[in-house]
Amino acid sequence: MNQPRKPRIAVVFGGRSSEHGISCVTAGSVLAAIDREKYDVVPVGIATDGRWVLEADDASRLAITGSTLPEVDASRSMVALLGAAGSTDLVVTDAAQVPETLGAVDVVFPLLHGPWGEDGTLQGMLEMAGVRYVGSGVLASAVGMDKAYMKIVLEAAGLPVTPGITVTRREWQVDQVSAIARVEALGYPSFSKPARGGSSIGISKIHDRGEIVEAVELALQYDAKVLVEVAVVGGREVECGVLATTDGAPETSRPAEVRTGGEHEFYDFEAKYLADQHTEIDLPADLPPEVEQELRAHAVRAFEALSCEGLARVDFFVLPDHTLIINELNTMPGFTPTSMFPQMWAASGVSYPELVDRLITLALERDTGLR
Question: Which residues take part in binding Mg(2+) 2 (predicted)?
Answer without folding.
Answer: 328, 330
